[in-house]
Design goal:
Strand content: 15-25%
Helix content: 40-55%
Structural class: alpha/beta
Radius of gyration: 24 Å
CATH class of the largest domain: Alpha Beta
Number of helices: 12
Shape: globular
Largest sheet: 6 strands, mixed
């Protein structure tokens, strides 16, 4: 009888080893199956801003091979201004774009554009947690990563200013500098990035607000003649993930995505200076002249945006401001 029991146990062990199944017991996989995630980028891959997201996706797919695989669609599939809604509802798993595009849903998120505290420090001092909770609550999303800190905005035009005024100018704008442009006498117009070339060609606009990077990528410097600075705040781009999808991932999958994101943020400062020089040189070569408007130019833009941010949620902004500025 004893030998029979030993034989039975040995047979059971072999069965479990081959099939992974124990009668009456549900076993969980030690290694979760690779999950496929669909991400939406607010700009096509040819733009420098999208390039960095594609770089991160490539890094993540390599580091998280067997756990996570991300594919990317652009604004041709889902419009730039609609992508945040797609990630909120779960139509896509991830979204990469500026917080100003979802201003209507989470206006306070734009405060990241004013941040000067490096990303790693924000993760340590509680600022990231506040931003993550804001995106959880208002966009049903997890804040995965931020990039573009230090990449400044400028005012580009096809014709010169008039005594530092832009009265009568029609400028392609975004919510984060609408009030600033109005204070200069200009009329802000809204349009997605891919539509700018045609608008400049047809003289629908006399210029635009845009960061230092990417102007030459869209061949906009074929029409633009002046870049007015100093630059103001930063062109922050967030990577978001649908909260339900994030929660459905295994701990190993979440940790791998998190590790890829934090390492990319940590390496970010080394990328900015070199690219700034390249972009400025390209614009100069293509006929765009830099116009120094004095320190009040950028200070005014910053003041207007802080005032706007504070108006949305004074208590929350008051708490996060000292964490993101230094």
């Amino acid at each position: 009888m004893k030998n029979f029991k030993l034989t039975l146990l040995a047979s059971a062990a072999i069965f479990v080893g081959v099939t992974g199944f124990v009668p009456g017991i549900v076993l969980q996989d030690v290694q979760a199956q690779e999950v496929k995630l669909k991400a939406a980028s607010f700009l096509p891959g040819k733009f420098i801003f999208a390039k960095y997201f594609y770089d991160w996706v490539g890094q993540t797919n390599k580091q998280c091979s067997g756990k996570v695989k991300i594919s990317v669609i652009g604004p041709a599939a889902i419009g730039s201004m609609k992508q945040w809604e797609a990630v909120k509802s779960g139509v896509v798993d991830m979204h990469y774009g500026p917080p100003t595009y979802y201003k209507g849903a989470a206006p306070e998120a734009g405060v990241s554009d004013l941040a000067t505290t490096p990303f790693p420090q924000q993760r340590k001092n509680g600022a990231y947690k506040m931003l993550d909770e804001l995106h959880n609550k208002k966009l049903n999303s997890k804040l995965i990563m931020q990039v573009m800190q230090g990449v400044k905005f400028y005012l580009y035009t096809t014709k010169p200013h008039k005594n530092k005024r832009f009265d009568g100018f029609r400028l392609r704008s975004a919510p984060l500098y609408d009030n600033f442009f109005k204070s200069l006498g200009a009329s802000p117009l809204r349009m997605p990035g891919p539509a700018v070339y045609t608008a400049l060609e047809r003289k629908t606009v006399d210029g635009l607000g845009w960061p230092l990077w990417g102007v030459s990528d869209g061949s906009w410097d074929k029409f633009l003649k002046y870049r007015h600075g100093p630059g103001y705040f930063s062109a922050i781009l967030n990577t978001l993930m649908n909260k339900k999808k994030w929660d459905s991932l295994s701990a190993a999958q979440r940790n791998c995505i998190h590790g890829s994101a934090t390492s990319f943020e940590e390496a970010w400062p080394s990328k900015v200076s070199a690219q700034d020089k390249k972009e400025a040189a390209r614009q100069k070569k293509n006929g765009v002249t830099y116009v120094d408007m004095g320190s009040d130019f950028s200070a005014t833009a910053t003041r207007f945006y802080w005032e706007e941010m504070t108006s949305y949620n004074p208590a929350w902004i008051g708490k996060i401001k000292p964490l993101i500025t230094q």
